[in-house]
Amino acid sequence: MTSEAKDVEGETADGRTIAVVSAGLGQPSSTRLLADRLASAAVDALRGRGVEAEAVAVDLRDHAHQMVDAMLTGFTAGALRDAVDTVVGADGLVAVTPVFNASYSGLFKTFFDVLERGSLDGMPVLIGATGGTARHSLVLEHAVRPMFAYMRAVVAPTAVYAAAEDWGSGRSGGVDGLSERVARAGAELASLVAARAPAAARRDAADADPYAHPVPFERLLASGGQ
């Protein structure tokens, strides 16, 4: 069993990093708990494929004031800048929000509003939400999934909603059903992440100097300059 997402920024040298964004307000938080379980399932599935991976947590409650500042000024700084870099530089993303007024929380939406346009293009994303009743489960499909689709992320087919009863106990309780959904969603995210080039390799390609390996002059002459 893997441990919960680390509360540090960083990435594995040769493996993949899963950023884990949680918009829970309390400590402890059922939203963070669900996020950790989803991330653990994705990491386990990647390791099952022979791909080393780690999860890095981003608790949005820690950055609430800086997010408001960023919305007003247009600039991110300090710990918020580190959190943004963690998310946009990851190989995959787990994003979990509590349900407020039948939608994602303002804290959750504000963080993704702060990101620069295009920063999540092609990013594999697993979405989740928590709430007091299962009646709000469709918030993932009518609010959260469309938001990430608009940001051109690639959202895993299975979204996981955890209501209060899902945290119950007993053989006939909600735990088994939630565990199955978490495992399926984690496997889907792992498949999307494994199919994509590592983030580090993509950054190296983007940063490569196009003039670092010029074509020898003799070869240009031999090809008629073409």
From TrEMBL:
Gene Ontology MF terms in the entry: oxidoreductase activity
Keyword Flavoprotein: yes
Keywords (A to Z) from UniProt: Flavoprotein, FMN, Oxidoreductase
One family name in Pfam for this protein: FMN_red
Domain (NADPH-dependent FMN reductase-like): residue spans on this chain: 18-167
Superkingdom of origin: Bacteria
Designated name of the protein: FMN reductase
Classification lineage: Bacteria, Bacillati, Actinomycetota, Actinomycetes, Streptosporangiales
